[in-house]
Design a protein that fits this description.
alpha/beta, FAD/NAD(P)-binding domain, Enolase-like, domain 1, 5-stranded parallel beta sheet, MDHAR3-like_C, membrane, FAD
Length: 473
């Protein structure tokens, strides 16, 4: 028993949906493309799960956030896949793969063969059992990675209204779930081993702003320690968490957000694995030329970082690597290496931040932290390699992105710090010659001062208005 396709996408997350849309735009014939997914629904925008899906009023629900609405593209409903002749093999686990024979074997024994395979298996949530703590099978212990997890979390939240929750982890999932729990009128205690939240990205000063904001919403932080065990009642529900420093925290529910691990196991003995993911070249092609990898599972060279191999766990990377892989497959003669600008964002409560590049080198922080209008630049070897902004407008975010993309050379760091956001806005107005660069010295500001002041004033006014218009997920 078996089926054969020209193209198979293994995995049904964000990357799969964006790859399918690109295949359709490039004229893939009916019956040539298949998507295999363990989930029972077509690909959807995963960020919605930790944002709009968890709202107590008018929550986001499918089909409203199927891909590719997160990038203001078509909504790929089941009908869309049928209309484009794309086979959806849902609720199906692949138990083995043979890249030499170009076959996949499902859990029920079906053989699915291909000419070109795109691995979009994404990542899984790390379980506390992997750190020696038992008990995540309790009905009030939740993770958040897929739709089933989100449905379970909503159910547990609804039974915990007015109660207490413990969030383990101070990263993306921990911060966004904590905000959602507070919005659902649940008291939250966050526990993580680092000195401050979002330790992989935030500076201590930036972290202080968000921690202060969360505390104003009633969130309690316990930092510098980890979960070691649970206390359970006679029905097996968790009633308290016990921390390494001996602290006992009573609770009615627990949310675990301690990171993810790429799903590479099917291919680790067949393809090159690096940085925890499947290594690909700039065209998203693996060590086997008939196999590509995209999204969270792919470790690819980033031009901005001198071609260093990175695995980037973010929806933007999933979208863009998926599209680039399809471009490379369908139009190889017209497709070069991916030139990707690393991008991360989050939206919690009324806050919204974006980050581009990497947080490496000297950091310059600017703005009014008390009002929530602030940012930072990271300068390494005399060039801007990273930029962060809270509360910006679209134009302002585009400006900091351009400053990073150009790797602007800075000789006067004090002046850049003084200029703050205005510095990026001025850089964004420059016309850069092909292959040219930008060197920012004190004198450069004199060139552009007259034109820049008027432009910056109008942009700032627009930013105040635009910044209030936020999407729900």
């Amino acid at each position: 028993m078996g089926r054969a396709f020209v193209y198979v996408i293994l995995g049904g997350g964000v990357a799969a949906g964006y790859a399918a849309l690109e295949f359709a735009r490039r004229g893939v014939a009916h019956g040539e493309l298949c998507i295999i997914s363990e989930e029972s629904v077509p690909p959807y925008e995963r960020p919605a799960l930790s944002k709009g899906f968890l709202l107590p009023e008018d929550p986001a629900r499918l089909p409203s956030f199927h891909t590719c609405v997160g990038a203001n593209e078509e909504k790929l409903t089941p009908k869309w896949y049928r209309d484009h002749g794309i086979e959806l093999v849902l609720g199906t686990r692949v138990k083995s793969a043979d890249v030499n024979r170009k076959t996949l074997i499902t859990a029920v024994g079906e053989t699915i063969s291909y000419k070109i395979l795109i691995i979009a298996t994404g990542a899984r949530a790390l379980k506390i059992e992997e750190f020696g703590v038992r008990g995540s099978d309790a009905e009030n212990v939740c993770y958040l990675r897929n739709l089933a997890d989100a449905n379970r979390l909503v159910s547990v939240m609804q039974s915990c209204n007015g109660g207490n929750a413990v969030v383990i982890g101070g990263g993306y999932i921990g911060m966004e779930c904590a905000a959602a729990l507070v919005t659902n009128r649940i008291k939250v205690t966050m526990v993580f081993p680092e000195a401050h939240c979002m330790a992989r990205l935030f500076t201590p000063k930036i972290a202080d702003f968000y921690e202060d904001y969360y505390e104003s919403k009633g969130v309690n932080f316990i930092k510098g320690t980890v979960l070691t065990s649970f206390e359970n009642d006679s029905e097996g529900k968790v009633t308290a968490v016990i921390l390494k420093d001996g602290t006992r925290v009573p609770t009615q529910m627990v949310v675990i957000g301690i990171g993810i691990r790429a799903n590479t196991s099917l291919f680790e003995d067949q393809l090159t694995v690096e940085k925890g993911g499947i290594k690909v070249n700039g065209r998203m092609q693996t060590s086997n030329n008939s196999v590509y990898a995209v999204g969270d599972v792919a470790a690819f060279p980033v031009k901005l970082f001198g071609g260093d191999i990175r695995r980037l766990e973010h929806v933007d990377s999933a979208r863009k690597t998926a599209r680039h892989a399809v471009d490379a497959i369908m139009a190889p003669e017209k497709t070069g290496d991916l030139d990707y600008l690393p991008f991360f964002y989050s939206r919690v409560f009324t806050l919204s931040w974006q980050f581009y590049g990497e947080n490496k080198g000297e950091v310059l922080q600017y703005g009014d932290f008390s009002s929530g209008r602030f940012g930072a630049y990271w300068i390494d070897k005399g060039r801007i390699v990273g930029a962060f902004l809270e509360g910006g407008s679209r134009e302002e975010y585009e400006a900091i992105a351009k400053a990073v993309k150009l790797k602007v050379a800075v000789k006067d760091t004090a002046e850049v710090e003084r200029q703050g956001l205005e510095f990026a806005l001025k850089v964004s107005q420059l016309v850069i010659p092909e292959g040219g660069g930008v060197v920012v010295e004190k004198q450069v500001y004199n060139w552009h001062a007259a034109a820049g002041v008027a432009a910056a004033a109008s942009i700032a006014a627009f930013a105040y208005w635009y910044g209030r218009r936020r999407r729900r997920w």
